[in-house]
Amino acid sequence: MNHQQYKLDYEVYADASALKQEDATLLNHAREVTSQAYAPYSAFKVGAVAKLANGALVIGTNQENASFPVGICAERVLLSAAATLHPGVAIESIAISYDNTKGKSNHPISPCGICRQSLHEYELRVKNPIRLILAGLEGNVYVIPQAGSLLPLSFTSEDMK
Ligand code: THU
To answer: Where is the CMP/dCMP-type deaminase domain (predicted)?
Structure first.
């Protein structure tokens, strides 16, 4: 028997002002677009902004539904839009923020399990890692160099060969 360990490397910043300018701008944009979320059921508004390799910016916000499972997270709204508007173009970074309108928005949230799977497939599809910049409306910031690192032992198309 062998023990295996999985290591996750990520950066922690005290707040947005400690980021390099380009990342701070992307994060502040993500904070702004939280207002475009449709989240009448959870009151938890998520905003995401991607910077693409061609310079384009693509946004996503969570879109809920009275039939709860129909709702879509901001990250997957963003990925669908990016794939449709800019097919084959790599996503360099995605900033993700949220406005918990009934509570605190002062710590980073990281993508849910389904979104991790979607983010990782996007990385494989365009052969480029996606950096994640994660923070609330205030407080510390995590920068994760590669979204797929959030999904150890991931299931991919390779497993179906
Ligand atoms: N949500 C996202 O959009 N992204 C995340 O990373 C976590 C959760 C949404 C789903 C739902 O509309 C609300 O936040 C509460 O779970």
So the answer is: 21-158
Q: Is 123 among the residues known to form the active site?
A: no
Q: Is residue 98 part of a domain?
A: yes
Catalytic residue among 22, 32, 64, 75: 75
Question: What pTM value is reported for the model?
Answer: 0.97
What is residue 151's DSSP assignment?
Answer: S
Q: What is the per-residue pLDDT across 3-49, written as a single tens digit (0 to 9) for each?
A: 999 999 999 999 999 999 999 999 999 999 999 999 999 999 999 99
Regarding the beta carbon of 111 and ligand 1, being less than 6 Å apart is answered yes
Instruction: Tell me the CATH number at 105.
Output: 3.40.140.10
pLDDT (tens digit per residue) in 63-107: 999 999 999 999 999 999 999 999 999 999 999 999 999 999 999
Q: Give the Cα separation of 37 and 77 in Å (integer).
A: 11
Name which of 73, 66, 72, 62 is nearest 38 in CA terms: 62
In a domain, 12, yes or no: no
